[in-house]
Amino acid sequence: MLEQLAGLVNGDAALVRRGRHLSGAFLVEARPRSWLVHVLRGRIEKVEEGPFVMPSWRFALRADEVSWRRFWQPRPAPGDHDLLALVRRGLLKFEGDLQPLMANLLYIKGVLEAPRALTRREGAV
User: Fold this and answer.
1) Phi/psi at 98 (nearest 5 deg)?
2) Strand pairing class (59-64; 92-96)
3) d(CA 88, CA 79)
4) In the chain, what are the helix, strand and coil shares in percent, each to the nearest 5?
5) Is 68 helix (H, G, I), strand (E, B) or coil?
6) Which of 51, 74, 85, 102 stands the most exposed, by the fewest C-beta atoms within 10 Å?
7) Which of left, alpha, beta for 54 (phi over 0: left; psi -120 to 50: alpha)?
8) Distance CA 12, CA 18 (A)
9) Contact between residue 10 and residue 2 where contact means Cβ atoms under 8 Å apart
């Protein structure tokens, strides 16, 4: 799903504006898969799928694949609906430099919720 992230995010002017102060790469891990998301002033420049040898990122969001699948459902269940809910339940870990993550938390939430639009179109649950 994250392969289509650039189109989903860059097509949303309000979301790009919200992330205008964020530039750099962050890692999204859905064990065993991982992606580097490269952001320049709120626009997704590219998304690279791993495996990586010594990737460079500012912060990482790590969860298992099942947790991400539940998060990306069109209407996730309570507890699966939000990044901080996943953290609270011990299903998601934030790592690295948390300052840019927390300073841009609404943007990051919007970016990672964007794939829900794909599951709505596909009719997946």
Assistant:
1) -80, -15
2) antiparallel
3) 9
4) 40, 25, 35
5) helix
6) 51
7) left
8) 10
9) no
- Rounded distance between C-alpha atoms, residue 1 and residue 21, angstroms: 25
**Backbone dihedral angles phi then psi of residue 81, each to the nearest 5 degrees:** -85, -15
Please report, as a single letter, which amino acid is at residue 99: Q
Contact 88, 63 (CB under 8 A): no
Give the whole-angstrom CA distance, residue 13 versus residue 64: 30
Q: Does the pTM of the predicted model rise above 0.85?
A: yes
> Does position 108 have pLDDT exceeding 60, yes or no?
yes
Residue 76, CA distances (Å) to 58, 82, 91 in order: 28, 9, 15
Checking DSSP bridges between strand 92-96 and strand 33-40, what pairing results, if any?
unpaired
Could you read off the pLDDT of 13-60 as tens digits, one per residue? 999 999 999 999 999 999 889 999 999 999 999 999 988 888 899 999
Average pLDDT, the chain: 92
Structure-token pair, residue 32? 């065993």
